[in-house]
Design goal:
0% strand, mainly alpha, coiled coil, rod-shaped, 75% helix, disordered C terminus, 122 residues, single chain
Length: 122
């Protein structure tokens, strides 16, 4: 024979499980953790502000450096153009890209030019 006893009804939806109250040790531990989390959040916000400030400063310095490099490059380019205009024979040296050994050749040519200038002045 089958068991015909009905199953108990489900608990009402309004019934909730209330956990037992925390012990004083757990409450103290939780309070300590909450305090530490708040302190860490404040520290993190301060560090974030400092990092953003440093990042902005680095961006400003990078822009200044970039501007200075562009000014120097423009100055060197104009000086190179003037040199090419003054000495067409050297124009070929500047037209070729720098290859191994050409730095020594350029240095020797510059030294030779300065020594000939010195001789011409004497």
């Amino acid at each position: 024979m089958a068991d015909t006893t009905p199953s108990p009804p489900p608990p009402p939806a309004s019934a909730t499980f209330d956990p037992p109250p925390f012990t004083p040790e757990v409450q103290k531990w939780r309070s300590t953790l909450d305090t530490q989390v708040k302190a860490y959040k404040v520290d993190i916000l301060e560090l974030k502000k400092e990092l953003n400030s440093e990042l902005n400063q680095l961006r400003i310095e990078f822009k200044e450096l970039n501007t200075n490099l562009q000014v120097q490059q423009n100055s060197l380019t104009s000086g190179r153009r003037n040199l090419i205009k003054d000495d067409p024979q050297r124009a070929q040296e500047f037209a070729n890209p720098i290859v191994k050994g050409s730095m020594h050749k350029a240095a020797a040519a510059a030294e030779e030019a300065s020594s000939s200038d010195t001789e011409n002045q004497a």
